[in-house]
């Protein structure tokens, strides 16, 4: 498009102004029009206005804002997914929660279960405590197939031999693994039942043991079950590595909150196992 010359009153022809900018697609931050200006002999001379751009408005977004939005979105979902895992739900929720971000929060609040529950029992169940006689200890051992839980069982046998009134092996799985409310139980539940059955069979008639599969957060489930079954001692192995540090250590949870005395067996070693004990509130160490 050609340019027009504009003359200021009483002066000669001013120098040619800048060329009009090329027409481009509009963005919200652009002005609708531009004014050509010159400076001639100290006087600012304005020319005609012409639109900077024509055509459809193209909405642009700051890449920094996009990044901040994505980080907040994913972080909200991640925190919500970890909250569900800490309360006993499956780790697979974490993938869904990160993808859905804040939209996952109401789903988590609706689906999360707040009370541990019994998922399955071994044959015969658990004998009730007999308050009429001076009894041998009722002991609950948390097992999960790890070397630390095997060490916890070995320590219990070393301390008490076969002198248990009741020995109960308990493994905790997620709520989602149990087939509750019409869902089919998944492999984690079947694996837990298989491990407990094999461990009880290995102990044989010399040390009769019952076993239970619990559903929920591991620490809370073991604490609650030990209290409900009048256990004298709860024994767990100490791990505290990897994801356990993020989700919370089971041994730290039961030591801090259990109303039943707790024995924590340290990591497997060639020497005697390291142990940590804590009496129930009101009992002497």
TrEMBL record:
SUPFAM superfamilies: Adenine nucleotide alpha hydrolases-like (SSF52402). Residues 1-28 are annotated as: Disordered. Residues 138-265 form the UspA domain. InterPro entries: Rossmann-like_a/b/a_fold, Universal_stress_UspA, UspA. The chain crosses the membrane at residues 64-85, 91-109. It comes from the Bacteria. Pfam families: Usp (PF00582). Keywords: Membrane, Transmembrane, Transmembrane helix. Belongs to the universal stress protein A family. PANTHER family: STRESS RESPONSE PROTEIN NHAX (PTHR46268), UNIVERSAL STRESS PROTEIN UP12 (PTHR46268:SF6). This is Universal stress protein UspA-like protein. It comes from Saccharomonospora xinjiangensis XJ-54.
